[in-house]
């Protein structure tokens, strides 16, 4: 069974950057629905014992009639687990160690990386995501994707370590159509310590 990540903070803990009602709706309804639908589809398809990463990476193992449901709901499940995992009311403002070194080498500075990711998040037409991912050698790549796709389902052979959700349900209750205000505020609660842990798990498994 695929399980939603258990939040380490209360729904109101990310105020004022992310409001309580958005958290209740986003995690408690949208993410919960993706998780429920994924479990139902995976059970019917006989693939519920497979890690979600494997299902997204190799959809050919899924009976054809269930592939779309598992791609969409599995992507929603995976993407939201990562999104909520890397948020914190006590967020580390910057990474350290190997991740910070690689960020500086690749993007010149953390601020430059944040600017590039913000640009991708703002430039994603309609619903979607902006991503920071790493390959097996620790190289960093930024990208964007539509709907519930992610670097795994798009076949990039990259592992996401940070994501920005730009579906309207992630911000519309508080920020209305001002996506830029939401993305700017989100940086205040992105926990770079969590991102660093995900990166270290790739380069030092």
Q: Could you characterize what this model shows?
A:
The protein is mainly alpha-helical and 205 residues long. It has two domains: 20-85, Fe,Mn superoxide dismutase (SOD) domain (Helix Hairpins, Orthogonal Bundle), CATH 1.10.287; 97-203, minor pseudopilin epsh fold (3-Layer(bab) Sandwich). Helix content is 50%, strand content 10%. The protein has eight helices and three strands. It has helices at 20-45, 52-57, 64-85, 97-107, 110-123, 172-175, 179-186, 192-203; strands at 128-134, 140-146, 159-165. A three-stranded antiparallel beta sheet has the order 2-1-3. The mean pLDDT is 97.
Topology of this structure?
Blueprint lengths: L19 H26 L6 H6 L6 H22 L11 H11 L2 H14 L4 E7 L5 E7 L12 E7 L6 H4 L3 H8 L5 H12 L2
Antiparallel strand pairs: 1-2, 1-3
Spans where pLDDT lies below 50 across 5 or more residues:
none
Query: What is the total tally of β strands?
Result: 3
- Distance between the amino and carboxyl termini: 25 Å
**Spatial strand sequence of the major β-sheet:** 2-1-3
CATH topology heading of the largest domain: minor pseudopilin epsh fold
Shape: globular
Secondary structure tally, helices: 8
What structural class should be given to the helix and strand makeup?
mainly alpha
Query: Overall pLDDT, averaged?
Result: 97
Query: Nearest-angstrom radius of gyration?
Result: 17 Å
Strand content: 5-15%
Q: What is the percent of helical residues?
A: 40-55%
CATH fourth-tier homologous superfamily of the largest domain? Iron/manganese superoxide dismutase, C-terminal domain
CATH class of the largest domain: Alpha Beta
Main beta sheet: strand number and arrangement?
A: 3 strands, antiparallel
Number of domains: 2
